[in-house]
Design brief:
The chain is an alpha+beta fold. The chain contains 5 helices and 7 strands. Strands 3, 4, 5, 6 and 7 form a 5-stranded antiparallel β-sheet that branches. The N and C termini lie far apart (118 Å).
Length: 205
Amino acid sequence: MYRHFNNIETAFQHVRLFTFVIIAATMVICCFTVYQSYRKVGEVEDRIYILANERAFEAFAANRKDNIPIEARSHIRLFHHYFFSLDPDDWVIEENIRHALYLADGTARKQYEDLKESNYYASIISGNISQKITTDSISVNFQEYPYRFMYFGKQEIIRPTATVIRSLVTEGQLRDVTRSDNNAHGFLIERWRILENRDLETKRR
């Protein structure tokens, strides 16, 4: 009789232990499932699809801190492109300058007004001159804020009879501003000035 009760007690302990193991395993599986679900949701939220030319391209969201060097150089390159890419068409000149002035402060506007007063843009239109710019390099110091930069490039000035290649070196600094349709990178160029702009080569056409 005693052995019978002992067997019942042992069986009960085994069943209880087995039940605890099942419950613990179930809780572990549930926690793991919830964790994986949140992780997958986070991955999906970081994934962006861009539709272009009827094709979907996958992109990934990232913190701005990871992209500051790329965005800063792109902002500087874009500003110089708009400011120095000109054609003998007053509408093209005005549109490019308008885009450029959204990316910089009053120092760029002052440079534009000085060039306008000296009839620089009028001579481009009357002389059927086109002007293009090529970026050689952009140096930005990200150790201090605002970020100081130097831009190195070449201007190609295409006249009816000749093409002139000029060096272009500028400097300035970048500060953060709110992103907008007119300023997608969220930077503003300040204290911008031209350090060098001299003829390097002239080619007859």
